[in-house]
Amino acid sequence: MTEFSTHSDGEQTLMNLVRQLYPICRSITGNGVRETLKIAADWLPLEIHEVPTGTKVFDWYVPNEWNIRSAYIEDMAGNRIIDFKDHNLHVLNYSCPIDATVDRAELENHLYSIPEHPDWIPYRTSYYTENWGFCLTQRQRDELADSRYRVKIDSDLEPGSLTYAECLVPGESDHEILVYTHICHPSLCNDNLSGVAVVAALGKALLAQPRRRYSYRLVLGPGAIGSITWLSRNQSNLNRIAHGLVLGLLGDDAPHTYKASRSGTREIDMVASYVLKQRSSANRILSFSPYGYDERQFGSPGINLPVGRLTRSVNEGYAQYHSSADNLDIVSEDRLQESLGVVMEILDSLEENRYYRNLEPYCEPQLGRRRLYRDTGGTRIADREEAILWLLNQADGQTSLLQIAEKSSIGLHSLAAVASELVDSGLLAENIIDHGAEE
Ligand code: ZN
Description:
By secondary structure, this protein is an alpha/beta fold. It is built from twelve helices and 19 strands.
């Protein structure tokens, strides 16, 4: 039996947060989610929302709230064979209560194991079909030889509420960058505690910085029903979302993967693809598909927001996915920090990706007179001067800095720095493009 501590050992590292959250039995509703958000609130201020069971959210209803105290399978001599206390994956997530003696054939209908990984416990859920069940290793299952067993699940599946949290970091503009991560998995690290840790650290980092151009809205909610609920309650404000990212699966050893928004041609798609390609040729860019995480809801046809997804492995893309082997051993501080760095670079690039207009477009302006160009002709031009020439040539008010970066092979960050010099010298003016949900 593994003993866990839910107390932090002090230092705010991403792995310490993952370790602190790992033992908690989370689900799409219930006290595990509330406890998780309470711990995350040590990193970033969270506004907690409780949405009552039965609330209609588009085509769905907020389900009954699930809470669990204990669950076990005992032989008829009273020996506990499977115990929720040993690992919270042992119970089918959202199991209804049961206290019964069943024969083995009936029990088998309620057992889940992974024959090809006989030492791993699978993660299985039954949110919307009332059922009970146990998940166990194949080895444990193979040892069940008795004809009858006692099964007990002490859970509540009753009207309550669905819990999600938001953190708004205000910027100069009320156009927002939305970040969403799911918080509904029990003791599983890469999917989904890596996402919770990166979003917590992201919130802390954004709040520590001077006010940025965009406002940032970080939402932590259960998968699928959480983003459906959030979208349903925020439908009238969706036009303020300029860009968005769904985050998750950010701690394993796979390179980074960006999955494009539904349209595939939004600014977030251009920027995230650019950042990933610049960082490593091993990083992958995927087009949108209506399967995966909450990008499915943000990319449903009636919503159609410019929201992509950043992960390392994709869902089902690593052997340990949705099993007890997705544990503390497959995520690391370095990889979580690297993922946080990738997210920050995407966000910084969105901040930097402005549109400019050349105010002296009739032939090249005289740069030497403005002290912007070398005094001696004939030498090879410096990188900065090359950036000046590209900017002045391409800044037509409709071409973004990112497009100029792609054409010129000059880094976006360098172009942004030189562009702001050219604004100061009166040669460029920013052209404000109105972002919004509508294309
Ligand atoms: Zn999952």
